[in-house]
Amino acid sequence: MSARILVVDDEEDLELLVRQRFRRRIRKGEFEFVFAHNGKEALAQLEEYSDIRLVLSDINMPVMDGLTLLSQLKSDNSDVCAVIVSAYGDMANIRTAMNRGAFDFVTKPIDFNDLQLTIDKTLRHIEMLQEALASRDRLTALKQELVVASQVQTAVLPAALPVTEQFDVHASMTPAREIGGDFYDFFSVDDDHMGLVIADVSDKGIPAALFTMVSRALLKAAARNHASPAHCLHEVNELVSQENDACMFVTLFYAVLDLRDGRLVYSNGGHNPPRLVRAGEVQEVPATGDIALGVALDHDFHDAELPLHIGDTLFLYTDGITEACNAAEEEYGEQRLDDLLHELCDVGAADTVEAVVNAVEEFAGGVAQFDDMTCMALRLNSTRSG
Amino acid sequence: MANHTPLSVPSEEHDKAVILCPAGRVDGTNVAILQGAVRERLDAGQTTVVFDLVDLNYISSAGLRVFLMAARDLQRHGGKALFCGLSEQIMQVFEITGFDKILSVHGTRDEALGAI
């Protein structure tokens, strides 16, 4: 099925570039592009082609800018998804765009591989949204919206986690009955560094899901600007703490793994301490003395360093795992988790995650949980230095 | 899953403050009860509130959010929220999230009242 995509940018060259880079997908009839050079032209194109579902838009443009276009889309074309294409470090505008309902963003100069991945992810999301909307009946309208919101939440998680010779990483999220605000992410910071995130947003429902998307996007953008996890957390914290009247906050652990030597640098914004499983021993990853994000401005976050050895597993989780309750209202608890991890010291990331999820589900015995259950494991198999 | 987990918020008057003692569990299903109790005091013009947490068994992040909102609300009205009587488990939640650095946390109720 062909997807018609509207590209809005005042750079004239972009049209040629897009047609060139995506020529195979265009030839196969998967993508059809239309172009506009400002927000006003974009609205005219949307009028002309009623089947446009995806808009890639620049922010700074003459006549009508991208942020104004987003507001217009929200009110008149609510079934259109927007992806923002904006300059490196344009954090304030990216945040505003996410708040106005942008689905994702890519940064300039455009990495066309990344853009292609983002387009595919967004189109999958639109497809899900349309299916959900089509099957919605009036009586279950509200319930369906919650389902859609939770699909949005799932759609922002990385679709496939990488397996390489150097490390393997695996994650799982089991959403609670209500939409929660857990998320995890794993991305390449540069050729030598991988970023690793686990987070839990306070509260539930659609506001929490939106806060989740904003936090995730801001962190991903900050990760490209700062090598230090503490600096990234500081930047995100400053942005989400401003005008945060709802007092929403996110506990977030962010680590950067150096693929050359296995060195892990991390900063922990009020999240449960992850576990290091090393040679049969399970230990807590020491705290960095920091606070949840969104709670207070001007907090100086701290970095800590943890050299990973070959064969080490780093296990990250949210409190939905340890606070999962059974019918007798007992919690799964940290002790059970640590005992289990102790037994899992020789297995890969996928098996570790599967074993923990199975153990917690078995413990809960089918009792519906209040909180999302999310965990992620990373195992270091080798470093580039040996 | 029950609609609400049990939570009551008994209160005591003191010459310098009102003392709220949430008892039971505070989580996403019942934060409105705690929020209501705080709002009632604010509307009555009370600006200093001590939260004595000796009878609190469990608090989720949604519960912490209500404490944060209460502290901000009271501060905006020139008042203050103080917290005391934290069990080891509740203290651990405060420490992990860093709320012990943000909120005014004290050991006993007398210590909290002395800090007003």
Task: Report on this structure.
The complex is a heterodimer of chains A (386) and B (116). Chain A contains twelve helices and 15 strands. Chain A has two domains: 3-134, Rossmann fold; 158-380, 4-Layer Sandwich (Phosphatase 2c, domain 1), CATH 3.60.40.10. Chain A is globular, with a radius of gyration of 22 Å. Chain A has 386 residues and is α/β, with parallel strands linked by helices. Helices cover 38% and strands 25% of the residues of chain A. Chain B has 116 residues and is α/β, with parallel strands linked by helices. Chain B has one domain (7-114): Transcription Regulator spoIIAA, CATH 3.30.750.24. In chain B, strands 2-3-5-7-8 form a five-stranded mixed beta sheet. The longest helix of chain B has 16 residues, at 61-76. The mean pLDDT of chain B is 88. Classes of the chains: A alpha/beta (386), B alpha/beta (116). Chains A and B meet through loops of A and α2 and α4 of B.
Features:
heterodimer; A: 386 residues; alpha/beta; Rossmann fold; Phosphatase 2c, domain 1; 2 domains; 5-stranded parallel β-sheet; 5-stranded antiparallel β-sheet; 12 helices; 15 strands; globular; B: 116 residues; Transcription Regulator spoIIAA; 5-stranded mixed β-sheet; 3-stranded mixed β-sheet
